[in-house]
Design goal:
This protein has 130 residues and is α+β, with helices and mostly antiparallel strands. The chain is 47% helix and 15% strand. The radius of gyration is 19 Å and the shape is globular.
């Protein structure tokens, strides 16, 4: 696996955010916020030409007090999420487990969307979106 070119970690208002840069990423419309640990792993992954879950696990174990089995399990989930968002590429990107997908499908199915009355736009947004 490797990180896609043009996706860089930036600090915005104290938050770690992945920013899409370059024309090839112009249609990327996600905002990806990373905690301290995932930001550390992103930097490590970007420093390597290609990486594996085991590569990142070794670096995580070396940086934090965590056992290797937990590190591998957590990184597999994280890398699967990165794969779903499209910020990494490769043939060996793990898939999120079906249990995770079922839970999210159940959550979506159980979520009742409520229609809220349209709010009047004010100021700057009124000028733009009238």
């Amino acid at each position: 696996m490797k990180t896609k070119i043009g996706f860089n970690l930036r600090q915005v208002c104290g938050e770690n955010i992945i920013v899409a840069e370059g024309e090839e990423n112009i249609d990327f419309c996600n905002i990806i916020s990373m905690n301290e640990t995932s930001a550390f792993l992103w930097k490590e992954a970007q420093a390597m030409d290609n990486f594996t879950i085991e590569d990142l696990a070794k670096r995580l174990v070396g940086e934090y007090e965590i056992d290797e089995a937990t590190a591998i399990n957590d990184i597999a989930k994280l890398v699967a999420q990165w794969g779903e968002t499209g910020i990494i590429e490769g043939d060996d990107i793990p898939q999120l487990s079906e249990k995770s997908n079922e839970t999210s499908a159940e959550t979506k199915a159980n979520t009742v969307e409520k229609e809220e009355p349209a709010k009047e736009k004010k100021g700057f947004f009124k000028k733009l979106f009238g």
